[in-house]
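[audit] Reproducing an earlier prediction to check determinism. Same input, same settings, fresh worker. If the tokens differ from the archived copy the diff job will pick it up downstream; this log only records the rerun itself.
[audit] input (181 residues):
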Amino acid sequence: MPRIEPLSIAQADPKTAATLNAAKAKIGMIPNLFATLARAPVALNGYLQLSEALGAGRLTARQREIVALAVAQENACHYCLSAHTAIGKGAGLTESDIRQARSAGATDPKDAAIAGFARRLVQTRATVSDAELQALRAGGVDDGLIVEVIANVALNLLTNYVNHVAGTEIDFPVVDLKQAA
């Protein structure tokens, strides 16, 4: 049972209802996360605007999902792991890719560097060493992508934290928090 109830369209002010309806038209549903964020329309709008802006960045949809999975696993966000497993499949990630991303890895060396950096940001609260940044750059991740990964991690931290506090009910196919060996 959620600790913060999702806002229904009937409960929402007209502007927030329009935002929720637009999300439903775009993705075919109103995820419980969106309805929960709608309790603070500024949070929902900020999330959607940052998500849209980052979608136009240099990270591919696959890479953004790799970041989301690595961050969700590190934060044990059951909702986000479930959501991004489904979304990741839509972005072309295989079951193996998803398992690797959850372990902060990938087959592609650049994707692996991005996944590892995303997890490291969460683990260290973004206190990374010069050597870690140098290794990231050597892995083909330039300074612009470094900042873009940080922005994607921040977006995912927002959703992880909201889901933890709210107890958001998972409305995607549920995945196990623990990975099979």
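[audit] rerun output stored. Observation attached for the diff report: The mean pLDDT is 97.
[audit] end
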